[in-house]
Hints:
Low-confidence stretches: none
CATH superfamily of the largest domain: Alanine racemase
Radius of gyration: 23 Å
Number of strands: 16
Number of domains: 2
CATH topology of the largest domain: TIM Barrel
Distance between the termini: 19 Å
Bound molecules: pyridoxal-5'-phosphate
Number of helices: 12
CATH architecture of the largest domain: Alpha-Beta Barrel
Amino acid sequence: MHSYPQLVIDKGKLSHNIEEVTSRCAEKGISVAGVIKGMNGLPELTRIYAASDVTMIGSSRIEQLKDAISIGEAEPELRKPTLMIRIPMLSEVPEIVKYCDYSLESEEEVLRALSSEALRQGKVHKVILMAEMGDLREGFVGDELTEAALTVENELDGLYLAGVGMNVGCYGSILPTKEKLEEFVARAEQVEDAIGRKLDILSGGATSSLMRVLDDSIPERINHLRIGEAILLARDLPLFYGCDLSFMNQDIFRLKLEIVELKNKPTYPSGTMGRDAFGHEPEYIDRGNRMRAICAGGKVDYGSEDEIFPLDSGIKVIGASSDHTILDVEDSDRSLKVGDVLTFGIDYASMVFVTVSRNVTIKYI
Ligand SMILES: *Cc1c(COP(=O)(O)O)cnc(C)c1O
């Protein structure tokens, strides 16, 4: 059996990252929902979250939360509350009630359907109402948040209003500044004034909000974050915002591809130029003849060749088709031969592909 393309996943490094994030958040009174969607909820890794200090397992996909529940059924001490983080489809309401302890919500119609379904199933489903904070993805706008909260609190007997949440940095590229988070707390307190009690959960965002934990400017009332990327990759905050995450592992995931051709070839194609395999008209630069490798594995495995990063700094990815990755290896640190294996780092965009490609063998270490 061939073993490449291969994704090597270091489970110990994942445990370490979860611990670093949950302990830093705990110091500020913040509990963490571990968001598993980035690695497609690989059960082997979900189990690590289940055994950690995260207080909920969060995902955008019900299938992944079902796996988390199966893990808890096999080992009851690993049963963690599940959180649906993508606002639900009306068509999945019965499953939401069945498999999710909590869900994020932004539509009154869905809330009503959830409540009826919960009553039907003899359950009380816990909801976190999302506040639109300027990023313009999900959330109740303005006073609609308080109105929805009053409806849940007073009319929808199948639901429990667990809290309110915010999300930024997804569509509108909005940053969770201290001011933005304080604005969110003010909206949460308006809800509390209207319903006449404190909310259990003020969920202040995702990985980007972790910056406010690290620079010690997170408002005191925020007591919950939903963290995916910072735990799995710890790449975005240092790369985009110069944040020091040196205490985190950035190498939990490594992609390995095998060389199937190694030749000295021209860098400029010859013949009449039309389109590449994907209908594009790329630009080519003539750099003369250079040593080039082709690795088995391509866009179907990792999405885009811009999202994988050779660890050998002398190697550059110069192109890819569905099943081939083309590399300039002229300046490689080591002398290569056909059959050698090259190692790559991945980012979020490639992680979502490599963790589900049936062509990629996953090896846990
Ligand atoms: C994906 C997602 C998260 C986790 O985001 P990261 O940036 O990976 O931490 C949290 N909340 C919601 C609503 C999401 O969709």
